[in-house]
Amino acid sequence: MARNSHHSPASRCNFHLFFFFFLLVAQHPSFSYANNHNYVEALRKSILFFEGQRSGKLPADQRLKWRRDSALKDGFSTAGLDLTGGYYDAGDNIKFGFPMAFTTTMLSWSIIDFGKNMKTAGELNNALNSVKWATDYLLKVTAVPETVYVQVGDAFSDHNCWERPEDMDTLRTVYKVDRAHPGSDVAGETAAALAAASIVFRSRDPHYSRLLLDRAVAVFEFADKYRGAYSGSLRSAVCPFYCDFNGYKDELLWGAAWLHKASRKREYREYIVKNEQLLGAWDTINEFGWDNKHAGINVLISKEVLMGKDDYLKSFQQNADSFICSVLPGTSHPQIQYSPGGLIFKSGGSNMQHVTSLSFLLLAYSNYLSHAKKAVPCGGGRFITSTQLKRLAKRQVDYILGDNPLKMSYMVGYGVRYPLHIHHRGSSLPSIKAHPARIACKAGSRYFLSPDPNPNLLVGAVVGGPTNISDAFPDSRPYFQQSEPTTYINAPLVGLLAYFSIHSVA
């Protein structure tokens, strides 16, 4: 069951309590956790998770053996084309295009910035495979001009059942955006994903890279020409699961930013400069996820400014600095809550999506600052250094891996204690090998309600995390907002783990 990233403002009085505790943890080593983590192992497992989310015909080198082929008829009867492949977004059996495209963008950005670290850790090829599994599918859903197929499967039908993807008999309805039913948000994110991936494959597979970039250009032109949010025409299918709460304007800037980075064409830079105010690059500067790209846009574009290549985009770097000052404890205008255990917390469910995405931006920006030999001015004469950003990002990663009040890892299969009852159909039902006979829609309910641990380990899956700001966690399938893993939680974490697998932070 997917979820949105909509959340309410933080409580001012609670913030000061948590801020005080966080400062104690951050400034006094005696309050810190002492575990030494194997980031290479965590990196390997975080990438392996994506193999458990694969849809379609599985390859011979599939490593999670309890998964089998699934959804092999997607698109053929309903759209007249092959829409097999791609990823299931979470613990359900739907292919949602919006979060899948964001997942692809973040996996690609992870490789672009931290691919050398992945290579050193021996995981680069696996990371590349995780991107290509997604982009092969994105090329299929964008094959018809001025059309993007944005979802396969009826979410209400799917959520009425608890069955393995290999047994699916729920509706595999196909949904699309086109000229009459625009979806600039999902199309803009898809263009960003294709453009970012084209950079990943530029030297490794030039022909494939050109194909991705050409398609990104066409999809972006469609997104920009026919403007509108996809939840307008597809509300009954995509809401409340991946409704667009934030509007489509940020995805247009995000898509243009990635196309500029991938193509180096002046037209995209001019588009960004021309549309900066119209599309609201400064809005909600400390939000970043599948629905809201503002902080990501500012950090991504800031690299150009910090390298001295484009002062015309200076406002984006100023926005990125403001983002940093809104996240860091002890600055003049902090806007982020922290739990007593030191975890970034935003209300609204599936909190780890915010933790990994925001932490990725902290790390990426810290590297850009480091190379430019600059710091972030946050008022009152205080400057935030790149090392401080890395420390905070590492603190979030370490919390996920077990440095928290519960002393448990939120990554399945990592550490001695981790979630055993995750909200995930394939993991919680017997595998095809263990139970060859089909398990019908409602027959799976007894496994959903069982107190027994999941029989199949979805290695590397990071769940939604603590229930609330108290660091509490119910290891229980029905609590989907806490116990369900998603691809867009893991995708930014891949880059973070790649960096910390090689670099230590004092």
Question: Quick summary of this structure?
Answer:
The chain has a domain at 61-247: Glycosyltransferase (Alpha/alpha barrel).
Mean pLDDT: 90
In angstroms, what separates the terminal alpha carbons? 39 Å
**Helical residues, percent:** 40-55%
The residue ranges in which pLDDT falls below 50 over 5 or more consecutive positions are 4-32
GO molecular function: cellulase activity
Protein name: Endoglucanase
Enzyme class: hydrolase
EC number: 3.2.1.4
Description:
The structure is a single chain. The protein has a 3-stranded antiparallel sheet with strand order 1-2-3. Strands 4-5 form a two-stranded antiparallel ribbon. Strands 6-7 form a two-stranded antiparallel ribbon. The protein starts with 11 loop residues before the first helix and ends in a 6-residue tail after the last helix. The chain is built from 19 helices and 7 strands. Strand 4 and strand 5 (344-345) form a beta hairpin. It has a domain at 61-247: Alpha/alpha barrel (Glycosyltransferase), CATH 1.50.10. The protein is globular and about 65 Å long. The protein is mostly helical. Helix content is 47%, strand content 4%. The longest helix is centred in the N-terminal third of the chain and has 25 residues, at 97-121.
